[in-house]
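subagent[fold] <- orchestrator: predict structure for attached chain, return tokens only, no commentary.
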Amino acid sequence: MKKFFSKVKTEVTFKKAGEGHKLTEDTRSKAVQPRTPAERAHPSQGAQQAGAAALARLEQKDQSKTKRTSSAVRAAARAEAAEREAKSNANSPYATGTRTQSEPEVRDCAPVVLSVSGVRFICPLSGQSVPKEGLDQHKRECIVTYLIDSPVKMSATMIQSLNKGRDKVQVCVDTLRKYLENILANPTEEKFRKIRLSNKAFQDRVATMEGHEEFLQATGFSLKELPHQDTVEPFWVLGEDKCDDLDSLKASVDILTTTEPLKFKVDRMMQVLQPTDRVAEFRLPDAFYNLTTEEIKREQQDRTDAVQKSFQLRTKAMREREEQQNLRRYNFTLIRVRFPDNVLLQGVFRAQEKLSALVQFVRDALVSDWLPFVLSSATGQRLEEEEVSFAELGLVPAAVVNFTWDPSIMADIAAQQGAASNNQYLKPELL
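subagent[fold] -> orchestrator:
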């Protein structure tokens, strides 16, 4: 029985494999007939309607799912971005506060109103108030306009006033003076009356300084092409006729060595401000600071280093050098003087000016300018060292200073003028 079923199973398997053939028979000519699938019955109209309804329900479900997923993704992205921004603000050394994720960000689009429009200077020649941005151009125009009748004085003033670096200016003046003194000592020597433009000493000490050409021309030099070492080069040459007038050359030397740079005083831009609760709120222009962008970025790191240095042993010279560097960080300072009636007197000063400048500024604005008064810091400390700079006193880049009459005479003022008169501090034309 077991052999019977095994034989039947084998026959069924061979029948499914198809028609057999011999191993020596060529089967390439015989094509395999593909099986034709049985024809499927067409669904009825009711089945078609049911299928269409099912597909519509599936599509609606997929769209709803996709919509919910997109909304969730956008919400998660917004939440993640807000969280990163909050962490960034919290870790920033310039952060002034924190803002939670649920709080909306408020952006103030109003223009920033500065406490002072900028820094201005009073021209010593014209008396005009000149903005810092146009100072160099004004110097050139003013020197030419007011000193055109004295070419030597004009050119010497240009050298002193239009070049930066006092050491370089002094080297230029000394070199020009030496040229003229050599001529005065040897008026007949031709070599002293010629200055080769390509000479290294001339290029390093004189050629880069504005005003040197005007000075040489004013003293009688002129440009000429002369032979030099198988070539021709430009020279400044003093004519022989100029050597006959040595007194004029001596006068030029005196003018060159005695001329001072134009001293532009800071325009105080005096303002009287009415009582306000924002007396200590300052918005200063960039001109008040002597910091580059890189230095501002490193300021926080410097503070950290300062804490570490406080635990280190440093020599007195090291400490003094660091203090001097800190004093030069600001160019100007804005000072507000608060009077007992809360009226404010505001003025602009150089950071290196002395306290005496503020004392005189206040005195010039007082009705009773002969009465002694006391200035004190916001902490109540009396400011009495008039020869100390604002930077050294820590009154930079802006500060509020309190004004009071000298207590030793307050009783006399109250007795003679009455309490009402004590409220009058500033001149009426300033109010």
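orchestrator: received. Logging for downstream: Residues 89-112 have pLDDT under 50 and may be disordered. The first strand starts at residue 120 and ends at 122.
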